[in-house]
Amino acid sequence: MKRTVTPLRPASPRWRPQPIAVGVIALACLVVGLLYIAVQVRALYSDHFQQQYASLVLEAVARADNALDTASLLKRLPPPKRPAPNGIDSRYRQALDELDTRITELDALIGSSPIPAPRLPQADATVKSLDDLQQSLAATADYWRTRRDAISTDVRRRTLRVASVLAVLTVVVTGALLAALVVFARRHRRLAGLTHQFQHAAQHDAMTGLPNRQQLLARLDSIAAGHAFDKSALLYIDLDGFKQVNDTLGHGIGDEFLVALAQRFRQSLRPGDLVVRMGGDEFAALVTGFGSDDELISIATRLMNCVGATDAHMGLGLVRASVGIATYPDRVADPRLLVAAADGAMYEVKRHGKNGYAFAIPPAPPMPLA
After folding, report:
1. Are 257 and 242 in contact (CB under 8 A)?
2. Does 10 map to a domain?
3. Is residue 352 in some structural domain?
4. Which intervals hold domain GGDEF (predicted)?
5. From the CB of residue 325, how many other CB atoms can be counted at a distance below 10 Å?
6. What is the pLDDT along the chain (370 residues), one digit of tens a residue?
7. Are 229 and 335 contained in the same domain?
8. Number of domains the chain contains
9. Cα distance between residue 320 and residue 311, in whole Å
10. Rounded to an integer, what distance in angstroms lies between the CA atom of residue 51 and that of residue 195?
């Protein structure tokens, strides 16, 4: 019997990865991974900016709350022995004006938000009840706090995704990963620098470089919270005759005078004291750790001499200063009311001839310079 021999078929060659194929796959993974990382990093950059903005809005809400607390406190105080012509205590009226300013600033900040957000209901503090305004601020704070927390959650989620992709790509794209991290670090530093510049501009006067009212109020809040010296004094300085400088010599000379005066104020106070420009031709000095009223009188005299020396140096012969002094806790029970008390004492000086100083509560006769 004849055997049939079946010819063997050649075995199919086994597929082996080729360098080109590996390179193409690696390149494809690199491209996809980098695109994914780029999208996530860009979203993180945007989220970080939105998170910073939400924090700024919450800070503005806190400042409005502080102003509201001050107005509420003054509203509960007994009426003055001599009622004001319009029936409203001047300190309470000033507190309402300050509250209205804070609400306006908060609404402008919300209106400039890069995130679609509900606007703050416009509230005139002189008409709308303080309770309604407090509820509105609480609702605004809750919304932005929730928004900030949601952004934080999204940042953590995106960060986890980026970390997972980077773990996969580390073996083949170490160089590209380092480059991406460098780009992210540069953007982060740039954002941090811009944030610092914004915060500095928000807390300093653009012309003189002095701290502004916002920084002073923050320091007073810190004192009220027990985070600073227990004994503090505020000297409120208003320039007498400065309007005549602007009217007769021009605003350029007036600005030059303010800049030179600010420099003298800095040099006349101790490093730990704070001198601020409240606005216009008004300044304030927050002094801590002083010994007695005589020391405060010496400081007030020194500040007034700064005004006189600046006036003499520029050859004007027009500008002098009226200074109101309020101290905590002996004269003012709440450090957040120092500004109003010192401002009231300063106006007493103006009513009695200007160019002098006076203490607030209890009232003291102004002391004009000899």
Report:
1. yes
2. no
3. yes
4. 230-362
5. 27
6. 455 555 555 555 555 555 566 667 777 777 787 787 888 787 777 777 777 887 888 888 888 788 878 877 877 776 665 555 554 567 778 877 887 888 888 778 777 777 777 776 655 444 457 777 778 878 888 888 888 888 888 888 888 878 878 777 777 655 544 444 555 677 777 766 666 566 656 778 889 889 999 999 998 988 888 766 668 999 999 999 999 999 999 999 999 999 999 999 999 998 889 999 998 899 999 998 888 899 999 999 999 999 999 999 999 999 999 999 999 988 888 888 999 999 999 999 999 889 999 998 754 455 555 5
7. yes
8. 2
9. 8
10. 12
